[in-house]
Amino acid sequence: MNNKYDVIIIGAGPGGIFCAYELKEKRPDLKVLIIEKGRSIEKRQCPKRVTKQCVGCKPCSITTGFAGAGAFSDGKLSLSPDVGGTLPDILGYDEASALIKESDDIYLKFGADTNVYGVDKEKEIREIRRKAINANLKLVECPIRHLGTEEGYKIYSKLQQHLMDEGVDLIFNTMVDEIIVEDGVATGVKTDKGEVYTATEIVSAVGREGADWFRSKCEEIGIETKPGTVDIGVRVEARDEVMQFLNENLYEAKLIYHTKTFDDKVRTFCTNPSGEVATEYYENGLAVVNGHAYKGKEFKTHNTNFALLVSKNFTKPFKTPIEYGKKIAELSNMLCGGKILVQTYGDFKRGRRTTEERLCRNNLIPTLKDAVPGDLSLVFPHRIMVDLDEMIQALDKVTPGLASDETLLYGVEVKFYSNKVIVNKDFETSIKGLRAIGDGAGITRGLQQASANGISVARSILKSLS
């Protein structure tokens, strides 16, 4: 393999995939390389799906590999620029909207479901909005295209094959150890295998799992950053009947609340009707909670799960929000032997630990079978506990029954996209020749905006190379 390229992309998540896709669509002659820490998509097999026990694969097949965490996520594409990142702030609302439409068309080309939730239920959505306003909640209207966990895997498999057919070089199971900078210009990368690859343009397209890695690289080579937001919270699980009206009419109701006590922002995120709660593993075996929902009826459960995330912003001198989130997750892991903690809402509001006995007599059966009954008050600061409680009570006015004693809360859910890199409209960093996109750069927070971000940066690169 010739080690000289036109463009090197670090990370094979949606941002990196769509960047390479657009580059080869417009300039088939370009030499493009993607370097990915994890495995190719056909080799991404999680033993826990069969054994129900994590065996500590390194790297984790759920969070790394081709398509990133998106390969095994619920696969929801948010079709509004108001959700999923800061592209409208960087590019303008209209351009961000157009890019989201283009990336959505590519998903459709590779087999995405044509059905879109939240566009043809005006009467029902008005009723949801009325209830939300009564509860001091803001309903963010966002059409949703649901890929489904297993269908998303198939779509990304086709995209991987397409990139290979178009001549994109993909290197898997390889870490980038060093971004090479000469006289203030990024000229290449060095991998953990000692290989050096050079290019005119380098794109860091790592996702949330790579956010901490990129933050360390920013410190090493002097890339300008600023502390971003860290989202910390729980995954809520309730019976489908409780969430039925929201699920049927919006699929994912995006609701925002500012708490009465602290005026903190709390939001719903990643709803999975008839889904299951799952564990994700990051560096050093850090376990955090997530959720999935499959398309196939044979995989469906009777429960709906979604995240409640408290957004925390920090001021100087604090500058390590990623570490803050990790410390909270580590504390939960310590109490649960490296697993996920679960507590009933009844025990949560009474300030007592959930026991195995009380969990067994609960009507709601946990879908995460190895979750450990415990007490979230031993993990979260008091402020976050109050924020979560106020949000659940507010949501109960929109979807009655959510604040039932049997509702389950799993902790900890943390979103690691807090390393906010300072970029211009072409996503250039303060190091010439190095661009940063996606969740790991603090620019996006989901599949669709990350994909649109990839298209946008590819076009900036094409202008630069022309």
What's a quick, concise take on this entry?
The chain is of the alpha+beta class and 466 residues long. It has helices spanning 14-26, 48-51, 87-91, 93-109, 122-134, 149-165, 211-221, 240-250, 321-335, 345-350, 356-360, 382-398, 447-465, and strands at residues 4-10, 32-35, 76-78, 137-140, 144-146, 169-171, 176-182, 185-191, 196-204, 225-227, 230-239, 254-258, 265-272, 276-281, 287-292, 303-312, 341-344, 372-373, 408-415, 419-421, 434-436. The protein is globular and about 65 Å long.
Explain how this protein is built:
- There is one protein chain.
- With 466 residues, the chain is α+β, with helices and mostly antiparallel strands.
- Helix content is 33%, strand content 25%.
- It is built from 13 helices and 21 strands.
- The strands form 5 sheets. It has an 8-stranded mixed β-sheet. Strands 1, 2, 6, 7, 8, 9 and 21 form a 7-stranded mixed β-sheet that branches. A two-stranded antiparallel ribbon has the order 3-5.
- Strand 12 and strand 13 form a beta hairpin.
- Helix 5 crosses helix 12.
- It starts with a strand and ends with a helix.
- The model has no long low-confidence stretch (mean pLDDT 92).
Strand order of the largest sheet: 4-12-13-16-11-19-17-18
Query: Count of DSSP E strands?
Result: 21
Number of helices: 13
Helix content: 25-40%
